[in-house]
Amino acid sequence: MTPIIETHNLTVSYNRRPVLWDVDFSLPEGRLIGIIGPNGSGKTTLLKSIMGLVQPDSGYVKLFGQSLDEVRTRISYVPQRESVDWDFPVSVREVVEMGRYRRANLLRRLSSADRDIAADALHKVGLQDFAKRQISQLSGGQQQRVFIARALAQQADLYLMDEPFAGVDAASEQAILQLLTEMKAASKTVLIVHHDLQTVRQFFDWIVLLNTHLVASGPVESAFTEDHLRQAYGGQLTILSKVADLVKERHFPVREKPYKDRP
Amino acid sequence: MSSFFSFSDPNVQMVTLGVMLLGAGAAIVGCFTFVRKRALVGDAIAHAVLPGICLSFMITGQKHPLWLLAGAVVTGWLSLLFMDYITHRTKLKADAAIGAVLSLFFGLGILLLTAIQHSGSAQQAGLDKFLFGKAASLTQQDVIVFGLTTLLVLLVVFTFFKSFKLLAFDRDFAHAIGLPVRLLEFVLSTITVLSVATGIQAVGVVLMAALLITPAAAARFWTDSMQRMTGLAAGFGIVAGFFGAFVSYTAPSMPTGPWIVLLLSAIAVISVLLAPRRGILARWLLQAENSRKMLAENILKSFFSLSAKKEAISEADILEARPFSVTGLGRGLRRLQRRGLVQQSAPRTWQLTETGQIESRRVVRLHRLWELYLSHKLGLPADHVHNSAEAMEHLLTPEVEQHLLEELEYPVLDPHDSAIPYDIKTDAP
Questions:
Q1: Does residue B173 sit at the A interface (CB-CB below 8 Å)?
Q2: For each of chain A's 263 residues, which pLDDT tens digit applies?
Q3: Quick check: B322 contacting A, CB < 8 Å?
Q4: Residues B74, B124: one domain?
Q5: Residue B344: which CATH number?
């Protein structure tokens, strides 16, 4: 079976400092996958480079065995809640309807079918009564659910979520977990950046353990081990980190020939 | 002045219409500048079009609006690129980049303008109008070019509204779903530069940022919808444009820009003061309403405890039981009387009506329920809960009361062992 996500020798810099070194893994379809690692280990960067939001210095990502542009409509992205201004003058409904925006309907109004899908997504996260509210009038957990509703409205097969459980109240956490279970049942794949080690076993069935380099990728039972955790959280690899600093300091390219060793 | 309002002069009509269009265009584009938090960038662009206008005049030797516009757009865009480069490629932050680019381009503009003014060219007269704006100096040709440009800008905003909104709200998401983010940003920047380059006819480069940002900032106070905000800002822009034309014609010695800015600022101040919910007045009224409610309910509570002994209660009794101000008590009692909750039985002596009794029980019930909730569910000691309940009893809605009753299972006594007063209708089922 083709892996749903495959990264090959992915090296990515942030502010010129490499935060992902030669990351190489394949993920199977239909799992709830947690990306775990200490702060600054490159979790968000990994998600962003899968979504094409940051350019890798080298390596590539394949999704459904194809390039991102060929399968974009099958992928849905949930950014970190803090990445937007919640005082922005839009209503909850408008945000969820953004999930129906496409390159193709850029200039048109949304069809009523699109609006129905959005309304349905809002219902699924239990916020149908909040549709008309301005988004700042929601709690943090509700805001996160709005973002997830927007992703659901995309009707994708692969969901990439950046810290959906961060700063979320218990009710919202339950609601999100319930949705994840349903998504798994519908054989969707969900990739989640997660920081709380306590809940890893409860939430996920596959993990990707990162600390700038890939520590482990596999089913929770075999990959989420004390040994791997010690590798990921037991401090950075001193030499790797020193080299990364050098790259930044000297403005040095990570590869001799710029970008892309395509297959 | 009368000649302005009669609009008998076709030139006046034309210019007024044109300037109103400029005002609307700048305000609409400015809404996106505003929500993208790029107000200062708008200011820098406005200052950076000046050298473009001067250069264009120096090269072509004439003041044809198309060439002036082209020059303005070129340096306006250049300033954007400079700011972008400085922010992304150096250690300088955006504010420093904006400050540096603004003063560099404006300084250059003033330098060129002075050189042109001393060149002795007969054609140059009027270029300095770009500093503070002067609608009345627009020629028919100007109005046509700038008017059409503004129409183009409006058309673009209208067409791409949805995408611009998403771009401004969540750029990463727009990128992720495959919108051509860079192209959209380019278009948005271009129409910003264009509307700045045309808007300076009305207010001048120095105060252009006000025409761009102030209508949006004022409109934001009235609505939570980007669409309505844009429409409202356009309206403010039109008013400002009209006013600008008016000032230009009726007070030729006056600089137009400052007048427009004063008007727009007045609109903004009015918005800050009067806007529903968000405005200062609305908040103030709400607070006044809150304190009226607190006073009334506190008086009712005093009645509740005093009524246990006798029905008719004198104002002196109430004042003894609770330290109201004498005038406040009088006001509160009169208001309760109007609401039919108390009635006067003798001079300075009152008693609760039947509805007044129900209402006073409700207030006391809420107070005691809240005390009970705090002590049971939050584990607060009984002597700590009174003060919190003093404030919350005025806030709790019937829905919250119902929740409290259910969660506390219709309790009989409060933490101080006083009975919780029920009415028949809220009694345990």
A1: yes
A2: 688 999 998 999 887 788 898 999 999 999 999 999 988 889 999 999 999 999 998 899 999 999 999 999 999 999 999 999 999 999 999 999 999 998 888 888 889 999 999 999 999 999 999 999 999 999 999 999 999 999 999 999 999 999 999 988 888 899 999 999 999 999 999 999 998 888 999 999 999 999 988 999 999 999 998 888 888 887 666 677 777 777 777 777 777 665 555 54
A3: no
A4: yes
A5: 1.10.10
Question: What total number of domains does chain B contain?
Answer: 3
- In chain A, whose CA is at the least distance from the CA of B155? A107
User: CA nearest A134 in B: which residue?
Assistant: B224
Locus of tokens 């943090």: A140
User: How far A230 CA lies from chain B's nearest CA (Å)?
Assistant: 33
Q: What is the DSSP letter of A78?
A: E
What are the C-alpha distances in Å from A92 to residues A83, B100, B179, B386?
16, 39, 21, 39
Beta strands A206-211; A213-219: pairing state: antiparallel
User: Is the CB of residue A70 less than 8 Å from the CB of residue A21?
Assistant: no
Which 3-state string (H, E, C) describes A133-177? CEHHHCCHHHHHHHHHHHHHHCCCCEEEEECCCCCCCHHHHHHHH
Q: What is the number of CB-based contacts under 8 A between chain A and chain B? A: 78
Six token digits for residue A135: 């988004």
B379 in the same domain as B240:
no
Element (H, E) at B73: helix B65-89
What ipTM goes with this model? 0.90
Report CB contact under 8 Å: A103, B172. Answer: no
Domain positions in chain A are 1-32+41-72+208-213+234-263, 84-161
Does residue B256 sit in the same domain as residue B170?
yes
Within 10 angstroms of residue A18's Cβ, the number of other Cβ atoms is 24
Tokens of A204: 């996920």
Q: Do B212 and B302 lie in a common domain? A: no
Claim to verify: residue B146 and residue B223 sit in the same structural domain: yes
Quick check: helix, strand or coil at residue B413? strand
Helix or strand or coil: residue B326? helix
3-state secondary structure B171-240: HHHHHHCCCCHHHHHHHHHHHHHHHHHHHHHHHCCCCHHHHHHHHHHHHHCCCCCHHHHHHHHHHHHHHH
Q: Does B177 sit within 8 Å of A103, measured CB to CB?
A: yes
Q: What share of chain B is helix, strand, coil (3-state, %, to 5)?
A: 75, 5, 20
Mutation target vs B (from A54, A69, A78, A94; most B CBs, 10 A cutoff): A94
Do A84 and B170 lie within an 8 Å CB cutoff?
Answer: yes
Quick one: B161 and B253 in the same domain? yes
On whether the CB atoms of residues A81 and A167 are closer than 8 A, the answer is: yes
Range of the structural domain that residue B343 is part of = 281-352
CB atoms within 10 A of CB A187: 10
Q: Quick one: closest CA in A to B35, which residue?
A: A88
Last residue of a domain, one of B310, B334, B352: B352
- In this structure, the answer to whether residues B257 and B362 fall within a common structural domain is no
Give yes or no for a contact between B167 and B198, defined as CB atoms under 8 angstroms apart: no
Among B275, B291, B326, the domain boundary falls at B275
Is the domain of B389 the same as that of B323? Answer: no
